[in-house]
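## Example pair
The file below holds two records. Each record gives the amino-acid sequence first, followed by its structure token line.
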Amino acid sequence: MGDEPALHDLWTDEEGHDVVRLRRWKGTWEKDDPHANFKSDVVGYGLLDPLETVRGMSRNLDLPVGAIARYVLAKWATGGSGGLLELGPVMVHRLWAPVEEAERVGTDEQRLLAYHQLRQMLSWLKLPLDDPSIYPPQAGDEDFDPPQG
């Protein structure tokens, strides 16, 4: 992980609070590194100053900078499990099946078929978001105004 151990970026202060040092990283990685896209993002986003936005939010919302930073980190870090909860394990397995089959076969033709199958599945899932009127009104819906997105 570069020339500086990760532990130097995290410590506990005298009151027992976690402290994290924000720093830029300009690492290198192998061409076949399975995490190359993420590492590239770390380098790219590292050029920005996230505290510019967090400080502004702190002033405008009257919240501590640390509380907002903790919220942002927690929300991002749990996004994957949040997505799983929203889709549900059954749908995740259904969406993964065409990809798994395409990789098992290993041809571009099969991967293209998987793409089309996934596109159809996602368009079906997205349909009520695009057109909420496809479902007939239900009892108690007369006062419900669906969100517009």
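Second record, same layout:
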Amino acid sequence: MPSDTAASGKPPTTYRDLLRNGEFVGLYVSFTLTVAASTLSGIALGTLVNQQTNSPFLTAVSGCF
């Protein structure tokens, strides 16, 4: 069972504290950019499939593959 932070006397870690660590900033930025690129490529693929086929079903399942 996790210990209570009030009992240990140490305040909880905040995002501001984590962003002061250079290793965490690099990890956070790379993960954020990966998610943004994946989302953008899914939207682009869906748009292309919709323009070519005009099928809502094929557009919906195109993001699954």
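Notes on the second record: The two ends are 40 Å apart (CA to CA). The mean pLDDT is 86.
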